[in-house]
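Record 1 of the preview.
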Amino acid sequence: MPLIRPFRGLRPAPAHARDIVAPPYDVLTTEEARQRAEGRPDSFLHISKPEIDLPPGTDPYSAPVYEKGRANFQRMIEQGVLVQDDAPSYYFYRLTMGTHEQTGLVASASVADYDRNRISKHEFTRPDKEDDRVRQVDALNAQTGPVFLTYRQSDAIDAIAAQATDGESDMDVAADDGVRHTVWVVRERMVIDRITELFDVMSCLYIADGHHRSAAASRVAAARKAANPEHSGEEEYNYFLSVIFPDNQMQILDYNRVVADLNGRSVDEFLTAVEAAFIVEPSGARVKPAAHGEFGMYLPGQWYHLVIKPGQVPVDDPVARLDVSLLAENLIDSVLGISDPRRDKRIDFVGGIRGLAELERRVDSGGMAVAFALFPTSLADLMAVADAGEVMPPKSTWFEPKLADGLVSHLLD
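->
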């Protein structure tokens, strides 16, 4: 079985593409999704967050929600809003956000290679979130949210991408947030075969975002294999929807932290405790870290520039040397008493796309006591952690721009 293969994508009919494109299901609250989809019956949010079509207060994990998503999906297919390609294809997908541009390949990726970690993970998953994705895939009989993968850049693949995207695109839309989404369909059999070959000689792919979606795909495949006495390995459920970008085009932003209290300390006591592991200097301006080991810290009305003391940085541990780990070990755990950031309600996380002003707002509003700005985790660090078979702390990476939902879906029959 190849690492990736083409598939018959389910895509928006050209006249409907602008209406369909939607943010990923997990970056909007239900109320935000409801507002974004208002007056837009063909928005993919009616499929990815179908609770917006049910009474307010509906449990988003209840059976009627998945059934509503299925009904909306089928309606769009029956009305010709979504149309399946006649032949298996690859799709080049370009994201443009301001001056940043990245071009990836939409493909179906092997569940078997995910299971054997050739498609490498770097995060733990939560069973409840896996369950949600399994139920959504089973209800739709399709994968609609792509897994965001990356690979070490290849000149040969770059050349194919450049040639494939040189002509007129098959879809080109700007989303509400200003991000431009452009898709070219690769239909030529020789090009398709060459792409498959080039990826198949790679030692691995890396999951950048989408650990719950890929884990759910594995569970769905195992269940369907067990229920299919004629299982051959060629069925569509043996592969999952993915978009694969070269590592040199990826953009990782900072993923910042806000904490609700100072763990019983006064501001002066807190600052003294922080100085045990950090050099602390007040700043008259916002502090956006410029290098590994630097942090910005905001208390009401005051920014501080923090630098981790050299003796606190492990050299040979790819996880412990991450900035998110250094902050967790030397301040968030030891000073603020938060040992399990996955479950502790005192801590929250703010994507770097929202800027430092959002950290100030969260603290100055009284909802949080302190905020921390981090230097972005590098893709090289992510790969090093995955290669070591380790996992990163929660909320270590924030990728921008985000993939859109609804551009290409993968039907499982």
